Structures
1.
Amino acid sequence: MMLQSVDLDRAFHALADPTRRGMVDRLAQGPASVKELAAPLSMALPSVMKHLRVLEAGGIVLSEKAGRVRTYHIEPAALAGIEEWVSRRKAAWNRQFDRLEAYLTEETEDPQQEPEK
Amino acid sequence: MMLQSVDLDRAFHALADPTRRGMVDRLAQGPASVKELAAPLSMALPSVMKHLRVLEAGGIVLSEKAGRVRTYHIEPAALAGIEEWVSRRKAAWNRQFDRLEAYLTEETEDPQQEPEK
């Protein structure tokens, strides 16, 4: 999935906080209710809800309400989008680095190419 | 490389901005000076410097100064750290999803397990 720039802004922002990354850790183990997500945190419920809204705005999690219980789960496409964005830049940098290394090796192995001293 | 929580905060925050992601795009093609990084941007130099400081604080880029020219380049270990963090959560979620699917298939295939109507 290709994420638009504004989505990437929100997705990266959503993960730039240890509480929210902890929620993603929990949700990676399976769906959970607000109550279950709040249980390990020493944090007021409105703060928990606020973090969940940031994760939802970033596309990292989705929620659905059944009766009075809202259940959250991971949106794997958003994680895949982030992974792909990072992976492409890393790959481009590595290619660039390999080319530089190959060039330097060539220069060293061929004395005729060396500048006169 | 395992990034600490505080480093991940800064690394994700650094990438939560389109200008900074554009700088990473440029640097993935090879090292660049502040002047080169500023060239395509309609932005005052102090703003460019501020973005670069955020990228550097997030460990995404490194810089070195030779004479009066400061050159920036990608720190691939930080990108690898982010990629790994995201990839692990995605993998955990997928395992969980596969288990659920296997369970549901089993339930459907074995009529004795079905609840009475």
2.
Amino acid sequence: MGFDPETLKYDDRGLVPAIAQDAASGEVLMMAWMNADAVRRTLESGRVTYWSRSRQCFWVKGETSGHVQKLVEMRIDCDRDCVLVLVEQSGPACHTNRRSCFYTALRDGQEVEIMSPIEGDLG
Amino acid sequence: MGFDPETLKYDDRGLVPAIAQDAASGEVLMMAWMNADAVRRTLESGRVTYWSRSRQCFWVKGETSGHVQKLVEMRIDCDRDCVLVLVEQSGPACHTNRRSCFYTALRDGQEVEIMSPIEGDLG
């Protein structure tokens, strides 16, 4: 059946969590939020677009940094309340210039940094 | 520094999204929620434990189904408001008996089922 973004189950702020995964490596890059319009814009433009809760505006990933996410495929989960976007990520996904936002591992009760910032701009 | 689950940034319900990823294949299996106690229990027990919003109780993944998630590593994101758990998943992660909850892809504007339920119980 045809997909209608309005049929996803949004929270009381009208948002669903969106997980971005590198389509080639499988690495989980980041998690952000989408409303129905962000889902629609992402599908129509092929550029992953989130809703910024802090700035209350659409956030076309990489629009200012150049670290864009080209949509390879969007998937939805069984409960229709979470979105997975498989992407081609240009440069780092994280604002700290690391490839992934999940660069802190918990090992033996300690926080361990397992990823360094990318040097220069590979965007 | 030593990790304290209370230092994560929980939402107004006291929860953070937790993404479960197959540690071996990289497949994203599911997304659920954890409160600080669920984070602590997961780290202490090595069994991934969520907080069920619908039932308002701890949810030791696989406790009834046998489809347990053995924790390989927990990671936190740059904003400390999302958790990634790398797991060894026994059998299907999804309650529909599919390996992953993200079995519906959006292709050419249509919803396409890309994964079948696992036959029998491989738990």
3.
Amino acid sequence: MPNPMQDSIQEPALHIIGTVHSDILRIEDAPKFHAESDRIGTLEILPEYQEGLDGVTVGKTIVVLCWFHQADREVLRVHPRGDKSKGLRGVFATRSPMRPNPIAVSELKVLAVDGCRIEVSGLDILDGTPIVDIKNKPEKSS
Amino acid sequence: MPNPMQDSIQEPALHIIGTVHSDILRIEDAPKFHAESDRIGTLEILPEYQEGLDGVTVGKTIVVLCWFHQADREVLRVHPRGDKSKGLRGVFATRSPMRPNPIAVSELKVLAVDGCRIEVSGLDILDGTPIVDIKNKPEKSS
């Protein structure tokens, strides 16, 4: 049964729109962020959201939001990039997956689109990670 | 009472970490996106999350994720940027606030930090919008 309180402003509930398929199977194997990755993988979107993909085409860069379902949501300070020599810093000053709302933002290049499946490069995300949003990458204004 | 189902992988619940204070009071007044805005406003973070701000300092660019609580979550096709001459496009190929999970991604410049309050420029977000995350902006790798 859906709980109407989930859609309140206080604690809105996310809809999972799809899943990442990648060859990154362990957190230790994940690139620290997407600018360092040339890995290829597939975003599989649920059929009920396929209509929203109209206009996502080969060659575009998309901004993909994922939910790091394995991340610790209670942590507010981390060693940046896991480097303990750097001392602790607030999670909001880092890209750590640990944070109150573990939403990852990745820029990925579209290599192919086949129905609900988008092949992408630049992947830095664990296999099986839930996807919550895809956006067009904004162009820089001059 | 918290509902344990809210933290399931299927429908994770977001924690609101703060609120945007801006002079953008109506959707019609909002810039279409942040690259076009030089507006100044304040991010007010809840005290229980203040520790996570350690390292957010003047001059940095931060990536701010907000929850567009007024957006229609059922829409999967829109006229890009509201321009009806352009025809409909899937929401995932646009930056429309309407989408299954209406999370806005904005890059804002930090002008001042005072405890739980961060003054920023580049704001494109309605006054009163809930904040769900703040990240360091990744540097471009060469």
4.
Amino acid sequence: MIERYLEDFEAGQTFRSRRIHIDVDRIKSFAAEFDPQPFHLDESAAIDSIFRGLAASGWHTAAITMRLLVEGDLKPAGGILGAGFDEFRWPRPVRPGDELRVESEVLEVRVSKSRPDQGVIKVRTTTLNQNNEPVQVLVGNLIVPRRPASS
Amino acid sequence: MIERYLEDFEAGQTFRSRRIHIDVDRIKSFAAEFDPQPFHLDESAAIDSIFRGLAASGWHTAAITMRLLVEGDLKPAGGILGAGFDEFRWPRPVRPGDELRVESEVLEVRVSKSRPDQGVIKVRTTTLNQNNEPVQVLVGNLIVPRRPASS
């Protein structure tokens, strides 16, 4: 497995993921455990909601996005460690049967002033459906170690 | 069930939740599905990680926070609908056996200019462990309908 150190990242790099199918039963079971609101649980209740039909919890979309990121080629050494977010929104609902994938772009790379052995990369991760419409936009700051002197 | 319209919210209001116990097996099974990184999956691998021990995925913490919010007294009419976040961070890890709860404070209430039938409330939701230490801070903007003229 390739692992990337801070020195391996630069602004403008992009990374993509595989696609993942969004299953109606998992939308409902995720919602039952974590976001039990009618528009995430029941098709007929959802019709009269702001979503005009069953929609996945945004937290389900966020969790699936993380899965796709972890599996993808970004691969910071030490793992994907979020130090906070600059932007996080869900521009449109995720529906049963959607096929989601992520595209990430490195926006900025900087060495930590307080911790010279590590740095932070700012990454925009856009989650897209099968029509290439964004369903989630996340701009996060990830902690990445610098390459050890010996390696 | 009480449902609150935009007119029922004002800056300074606070809301609390019950506590929820964080189970080690659910930490691992959530991570296996959504965030399969060693420090969320395996105690011994986690010891050498930045977390110095098994820690819940931040997305698991976020999902549990949503559960506590949905069950709590905030209760906007039409549901808890996030229109985006101003701040989102995980200041410390969530450990197996932690007891989490949330405290929310309304920071701002404003009527929508483009949609006079609704507005937005800005809410800071802090997720705390059993030692009252924040494990997640989330400042979100929620869409809330105005009270219909007839009610």
